[in-house]
Write a structure and sequence with these properties.
heterodimer; A: about 600 residues; Alpha-Beta Plaits; Rossmann fold; 5-stranded mixed sheet; 4-stranded parallel sheet; 22 strands; about 15% strand; B: alpha+beta; Glutaredoxin; 2 domains; elongated; binds iron/sulfur cluster
Chain lengths: ~600, ~160
């Protein structure tokens, strides 16, 4: 196969191995093994690309060289080469902007567009489309080629995202992401020649495949071939339905939403986001972070219970629905290993439709719960039958960070200059432990802060478990509790998760608890976040913003959240007790392995 | 059949064959060829079995199956129609006959129709060049076929 994952160990540049290459008449230094594109970029020469995509820290490089947009001229050999896939050699003389190169690029783009629908104005990717941006950059003003068009064939089966293969340019970024990074292998090139398309096994609709709905493929798709199922209209309809509409926002949304309004990455817009939601007309604006604290109470108690009662170890976190669907397919023989805790927003929905409803004198069916999530998997999750109570779903509508941004734009609010408003009581209170749920490693760190104090009865002085932080795909740490070593694993990205679970299955590794997030880096890089266009710095900034919220929080342990304490006192009883299990826990379904 | 258990004798034979192969992509093509020999086409179950036994994602196996025209993902139709494109038939205009069949049956050459009623394929010489052009439907041979005969031939195979 032509997709490849680049090794992280770049060849060490030794002085003797330095090459000299000429780019646009200028001699520059290069290292062996570098591509023309890399050398050009290092030296400030821009070469337009389309299929190429490089997320080196995720070990993800899409180098199929299928689009031919980046062709540059090798003047010695008198030929054009794809810059993204051609290694430099000593003495090469490259021209990136000769007339020949420019003409060729224009022709290639015209060919691609000759088989592309012209509905940019109403396309869901309008404004975020890399193909559109390229046409603008190249200055394309007409398409001379008339050719056969692929039929529009939209797959809306999944509830999470849409696939429209007529907008596909066969760059295979999604295939690389799903196979190499996520190890899920949903997609493959199917058919041959003009009829070749990216499709699924047996051309199954997405809902019938082993897709986890993590949405990572759509976060790298350059065009509108993949996009979330938009629930914006449903939310507007709910807001005018006369029902009681409650909204909650996930930890990772507040540190990314600002990007959609031109604010610097890592801006924390919590208070301004609440103001915007209020102006839309939600009856209550609550914080999913409250429910993250609640999740910790359940998960940490379950962990302590398993450790003290010789239960099944390791415990695996279960707040990521992408990961949940992954293990239902891949490890269907191990369904008793993950924690049975629902994900935070689902716990929240359940609390709102019981405790909150009773207190407000409302019927559960007269409440609509909307979740704003960094995630497209949560759209599928909210429709799971396991997460319904007497025919009423815990959560009714899920929208992504991107959809929220669009709604704010629709009502012409200038997010950056809004006032701050606090979340509504009683579910506005949250701790620093909840904030870090949005970043890989955060859930297990939060659980440790609580489990430590439950098990030892002592106060945990330093709440920072720094080895568990950061964007690396796999992390681990050993923590001593009551003199006994507790081994913690953290994996983000499903390929890393698979390796970690296989290592415990084979007995090669022993852990007490493992946190897994489907999206590399965690929810801050979720499939529903503003597009990062391959800029990993941006993800890092979001992560730093998350840890800053924790650092600045007065309370940093979930069990010290007074609103959570009151909920247990007034309604739920004991954590991991009978009523809590009924409302806050779930079951899993074995699914076919592909 | 997610767990690979089956009572289907053809699939059991396939499983036995697959168990003896190297578990990697190098075995994929021979595995698929054998599966098609055993079953007559590549059923979903067979594709699953090949993928899971050889440790190759099912989507990828399906991609390979659809890439080669040799592989069939549907069984042969009830009426297996073959049009000879050997030299003698070809010069006597068998391609026009083939086109007429495809048009009237509303199907593509080299496929089995979705209702599994007809398969339409070409062959290279049926050894009856003296009576060219030749059309074969299951065991019935039609000689000296003209385009205007095609509708009449199809009418015999409607049920
Ligand atoms: S959503 Fe995730 S699992 Fe599904 S196809 Fe995309 S990358 Fe693969
Ligand atoms: S890591 Fe977060 S954003 Fe990604 S699938 Fe899981 S819950 Fe959703």
């Amino acid at each position: 196969m032509s997709e490849a994952v680049k090794s992280q160990t770049a060849p060490v540049a030794e002085a003797a191995e330095t090459l000299t290459v000429t780019i646009n008449g200028q001699a520059v230094k290069a290292r062996p093994g570098q591509t023309i594109l890399e050398v050009a970029k290092e030296n400030g020469y821009h070469i337009p690309t389309l299929c190429h995509f490089d997320l080196a820290n995720l070990r993800y490089v899409n180098e199929v060289a299928s689009c031919r947009i980046c062709m540059v001229e090798d003047r010695k050999r008198g030929r054009l080469y794809p810059a993204c896939a051609t290694p430099v050699s000593d003495g090469m003389d490259i021209q990136t902007n000769s007339l020949r190169v420019i003409r060729n690029r224009r022709n290639v783009l015209e060919l691609i567009l000759s088989d592309h629908p012209f509905d940019c104005l109403v396309c869901w990717k309008n404004g975020d489309c890399e193909l559109q941006a390229l046409a603008s950059e190249v200055g394309l003003r007409e398409i001379r080629v008339k050719g056969e068009r692929h039929q529009v064939n939209v797959d809306t089966s999944s509830l999470s995202f849409i696939r429209d293969s007529s907008k596909c340019i066969l760059c295979k970024r999604c295939v690389t992401m799903c196979s190499q990074v996520q190890s899920v292998n949903v997609y493959s090139a199917v058919g041959r020649g003009f009829n070749s398309v990216i499709s699924t096994a047996f051309d199954l609709p997405m809902i019938d495949t082993n897709c986890t709905f993590c949405g990572q493929c759509l976060s790298v798709c350059p065009t509108g071939a993949l996009a979330e199922v938009s629930n914006i209209d449903k939310v507007w309809a709910a807001l005018t339905s006369g029902k009681h509409v409650v909204v909650q926002t996930a930890p990772a949304v507040r540190v990314a939403l600002g990007e959609a309004f031109g604010m610097p990455p890592g801006s924390n817009v919590t208070g301004r986001m609440v103001t915007a939601l209020k102006q839309m007309g939600f009856n209550e604006v609550f914080d999913t972070n409250f429910a993250a604290d609640l999740t910790i109470m359940e998960e940490a108690t379950e962990l302590v219970h398993r450790i003290e009662h010789g239960g099944r170890l390791p415990i695996l976190t279960s707040c990521c629905p992408g990961w949940v669907k992954f293990f239902e397919h891949q490890f269907s023989d191990m369904l008793d290993v993950p924690s049975s805790s629902k994900s935070p927003h689902e716990m929240f929905g359940s609390v709102i439709k019981t405790y909150f409803a009773e207190r407000q004198g409302l019927k559960p069916e007269d409440i609509i719960v909307v979740s704003v999530m960094p995630c497209v998997a949560k759209k599928f999750e909210s429709a799971r039958p396991e997460l319904m109570n007497e025919g009423v779903s815990d959560v009714d509508i899920v929208i992504t960070t991107r959809e929220l941004a669009r709604m704010i734009q629709e009502i012409s609010l200038d997010l950056e200059n809004l006032e701050d408003t606090p979340f509504d009581d009683p579910f506005g209170e949250s701790t620093g432990a909840a904030a870090i749920f949005g970043s890989s490693g955060g859930v297990i760190e939060a659980a440790l802060r609580t489990a430590y104090e439950i098990m030892t009865g002592d106060k945990l002085e330093d709440v920072n478990f720094t080895p568990l932080r950061g964007l690396e795909g796999s992390k681990e740490a050993t923590v001593s509790i009551n003199g006994a070593p507790i081994r913690i694993g953290v994996a983000s990205g499903l390929g890393n998760a698979r390796k970690m679970i296989e290592s415990i299955r084979s007995g090669e590794q022993v852990y007490h608890a493992i946190e897994i997030m489907a999206c590399p880096g965690g929810c801050i890089a979720g499939g529903g976040q503003p597009y990062h266009f391959g800029n990993m710095e941006l993800i890092k900034k979001r992560m730093e913003a998350i840890y800053a919220i924790d650092d600045n929080a007065e309370v940093r342990k979930s069990h010290e959240n007074t609103a959570v304490q009151r909920l247990y006192r007034e309604y739920l009883g004991e954590p991991y007790g009978q009523k809590a299990k009924e409302l806050l826990h779930t079951t899993y379904t074995p699914r076919r392995k592909f | 059949m997610p767990d690979g258990r089956t009572d289907n004798p053809q699939l059991i034979a396939l499983q036995t064959y697959l168990n003896g192969l190297d578990k990697d992509e190098g075995s994929l093509i021979v595995a698929l060829q054998r599966a098609q020999e055993l079953i007559g086409y590549l059923s979903e179950d067979a594709i699953f079995m090949v993928g899971q036994t050889l440790n190759i994602p099912v989507s990828k196996v399906y991609g390979v199956v659809t890439f080669y025209s040799f592989f069939r993902t549907r069984p042969r139709g009830k009426y297996d129609i073959k049009v000879c494109l050997g030299t003698a038939c070809f010069v006597r205009k068998s391609p026009a006959i083939l086109n007429e069949l495809a048009t009237l049956l509303q199907m593509e050459v080299g496929t089995t129709r979705e209702d599994l009623k007809y398969s339409l394929n070409t062959v290279r010489c049926l050894g009856a060049c003296g009576s060219a052009p030749i059309v074969q439907v299951n065991d019935d041979l039609y000689a000296n076929v003209q385009v205007s005969d095609v509708a009449g031939i199809i009418r015999r195979y409607l049920d």
